Amino acid sequence: MANDRPPYAHRRWTTNYSAPKFIFWSAVLAALILLLLFRSPPPDATALERRAVEAWGGSVWERRVLDSARSSSGSPSYAAGPGHLSILVTGAAGFVGSHVSAALKRRGDGVVGLDNFNNYYDPSLKRARQKLLEDAGIFVVEGDINDAVLLRKLFDLVAFTHVVHLAAQAGVRYAMKNPASYVHSNIAGLVNVFEACKAANPQPSIIWASSSSVYGLNSKTPFSEKDQTDRPASLYAATKKAGEEIAHTYNHIYGLSITGLRFFTVYGPWGRPDMAYYFFTKNILKGKPITIYEAPDHGTVARDFTYIDDIVQGCLASVDTAQKSTGSGGKKKGPAQLRVFNLGNTSPVPVSKLVSILEKLLQQKAKKNVLPLPRNGDVLFTHANISYAMQELHYKPTTDLQAGLKKFVSWYLDYYSESGKKNS
Q1: Letter string b/e over residues 139-167, b meaning 16 or more CB atoms within 10 A of that residue's CB
Q2: Which tens digit of pLDDT belongs to each residue from 314-337?
Q3: CB-based contacts of 95: which residues, under 8 Å, 6+ apart?
């Protein structure tokens, strides 16, 4: 009806534009439409991968999602606790995501995975993790967190009690080569996940992966959640810091219950090939040199290495202590829980000691190139204060670097010897 038009509609279109201006703005609008229609795909996605990502839907696919989401008790129940939950895990074919998904399933929770299988590192490793999960009864949906239609479909099918959001563009140094991938995944992707959770009814509780990198150029140790995090040393760190601020916004406005986890240098079996302990192992075995960075004046570079099983324990404790979101239909009904925890081992180890442990386990000396730490976003040290996590989550890491690397090396040798797998 004519009188239903917004009051500004008539004024908008009766503005006296000249013909040249009209032609100019029409051309700009057309260019924007073409850009949206033919814009390049997200970074690191090949044409084949994009087609696979788009291949979701249908009755068989829906049945697999529903079966995977069903807990051992038969239906999701927030109040009943562990073994009765229904959880969406993003980045499920990733290192931490695959371990967390498997642990949740083992205790009886329903788990649906989501992963886009990008090629930041060898996708065959992600496929191998996917097979392990599917053998355990976990369906890993192939799709991107930026696909709002897919997320909406998943939430329409399943009343998820929790979302464990671990999908992200990882790595500090890679940000210098492909900064757009970090904004795409770590900011836009995070917002898309929060939007889906905001719109869901009931809203799930959210546990998501921040990073120890947010401490940036902090010189006070050990790093505490109370410390300032406004001096990031890398774009990766900046996107994770931005994520924490975005989390605060969605908690404040929409009543989403959100827990952020700052992981400290996670390592272990099925790890990420871009991590130092992983490619050190590869190069030592191949007789290739490894580069060890040192601080100014031949100082030590150290990391708070945290074994994967300890990280999983912290993730599950975060799920179990997460309170319900308080929103409904995208509107906040009351105050909601907002937390951030350090998950580390609280025992920094020099990288040189990491190498010496690997040499003993591999029974082979490393060819070392020692160089000054470059300006590539890396920091000199990390050290977690875990007192808050110990208090609230009963988090207590139990695996030291020697024991953890022994388990990693055993897995590595087995994985790459099986069926002639190559690690080029």
Answers
A1: bbbbbbbbbeebbebbbeebebbbbbbbb
A2: 999 999 999 999 998 788 999 999
A3: 129, 266, 270, 271, 272, 308
CB of 201 closer than 8 Å to CB of 226:
no
Say how many C-beta atoms besides its own lie within 10 A of residue 118's C-beta.
20
Lowest-confidence region among 74-88, 106-120, 121-135: 74-88
Name the pLDDT band for 54 (thresholds 50, 70, 90).
Answer: low
* Euclidean distance between CA atoms 173 and 100, whole angstroms: 26
> What distances in angstroms separate CA 424 from CA 177, 283, 288, 416, one per listed residue?
21, 10, 12, 10
Instruction: Report the C-alpha gap between 187 and 334 in whole angstroms.
Output: 26
Residues carrying an active site annotation: 236
Query: Which pLDDT tens digit goes with each residue over 87-100?
Result: 999 999 999 999 99
Residue 393 to residue 262: CA distance in whole angstroms: 14
**Whole-angstrom distance, CA of residue 346 vs CA of residue 324:** 30
Cis peptide bond N-terminal to 222, omega within 30: yes
Predicted TM-score (pTM) of the model is 0.86
SS3 content of the chain, % helix, strand, coil (to 5): 45, 15, 40
Distance CA 240, CA 235 (A): 9
